[in-house]
Task: structure prediction
Amino acid sequence: MWIQPSLEVCESAHGRRDSDLIPVFQDSSKKPVPPKGEYADLIQKLKKSQAFNASKGSTLFLRFGGKGGAENCFLIGLGGKSELSEEKIRSLGGSIWQKCIQEKIESICVHADLLKDVRSLRVLAEGMILPAYGYDKYKTTLSDSKKEKQKGPEKIIFFTSDKSLKKKLEKELSEVQSLGFAVNLTRDWSNEPSNVGTPEYYASESKKLAKQYGLKCKVLTEADAKREKMGLFLGVGQGSEREGRVVILEYIPKGIKNPKTIAFVGKGVTFDSGGISIKPSLRMEEMKHDMTGAATLMGATVLASQWKVPNRIVAVLAFTENMPDGGAINPGNILTARNGKTVEIINTDAEGRLVLADALDLAQDYKPDVVIDAATLTGAVSVALGKYCCAILGNDENLMESLKKSGEVHGERIWQLPLFDDYFDDLKSDYADIKNSVNDSNGGTIRGAMFLKQFIRKGTKWAHLDIASTAYNISHVSYYPKKGASGAYVRTLAQFAREY
Ligand code: BES
Ligand code: MN
Ligand code: ZN
Result:
């Protein structure tokens, strides 16, 4: 696992400086504005030669060879002040980080006074810290020194002579640092192969993390789940040698009377073979990521606790494995849910909704003000939306709007799909109250959500995030790893927990 760079604020440039990072704005005639200080002459020259025009998102890497000052420098073009979005700056941060790895940069010094704006500096830091991740835990042929080189800079220093900026920046950067840890925790969980990443493993990791971050943690075994009558959850795990676990985490904000309660509910299928309705073998290995909903909510809960958000969080993470042994559930079987409803199993590969149904019911016992679940629930979400956003469905427009807003703060897109009552017709069963799937591929994501809705009690505000499209292999975002878990929506969900 890679070591995260540390984020520091310094009042003056001191010691050996590897690379400077110089933000450069553009004037109305599309020419770079030479910044005050040691880079004025350089930018003036570049302006004349037209080698760098500081257009939005442009970068120039220069080697100086270490004669006084910095050894290298990144110029980043910000365009005109008005056209720059926070997401664009974050994405620039990601590209700079990739370049730092290529050029073997050891430390980077951001000239913060040239940008001044705390929010811009914060998102730049986010963009640089988020790509600092690699999953090389099982690479024995990679020498330690190779791993070392891949790490990128150990330090990101922000220079500023402005005392008030320094203070504000320190607070922001400490939040960014915890954001980096939380997202990487989610990525580590999601990337873990299922022979190690068993339900028991995530339960014991949860206990450790809960201790570390001051959260309450309760773990239900399958015997406990039986007492809780979680027949759908248990049904999914029936064909696996490994026992399921339900992890219940609780974050209680300090010094807040009667805080609101947010329930997070995560799908934690540690491997989804499809069960008896077995999946084709092509890319089945990706189904180790089928616990990413649970991993995302773990990361979000840890991050929210680090940010000391003012709301209480109860996170119910339901871990189990979907396998096809002789004890496995069969198509045609009828199971009874925790809430008493009976479900006819049409397709054992529609297991996520079964696991979530009982977990959603359990979560509602905590009397939450809102319930949000996250799950890699359907392949259909990628068919509908591609990899550029996840889907949201639910029963409360305001709640969904707030989640979308929290997403916008972090450049994580959420797109709403409809949940018209008519879709329920598809889920009517000849033999039980409802069925878990339909034998055609229409509206798969909506049907998944409509199934979940049957387990939401009257008056509970609920939203469902189908993150199957964005959970892994997101290669178009500069600050996500190209392969494996993205860690998307950890920041969004922690942000929601802060602002709700
Ligand atoms: N875990 C899968 C969904 C999935 C597919 C996630 C591809 C990531 C990538 C889920 O359990 C599943 O198998 N869903 C089925 C539902 C169908 C049987 C109704 C699907 O999407 O095909
Ligand atoms: Mn499945
Ligand atoms: Zn699944």
In short: The mean pLDDT is 95. Residues 163-191 form the longest helix (29 residues).
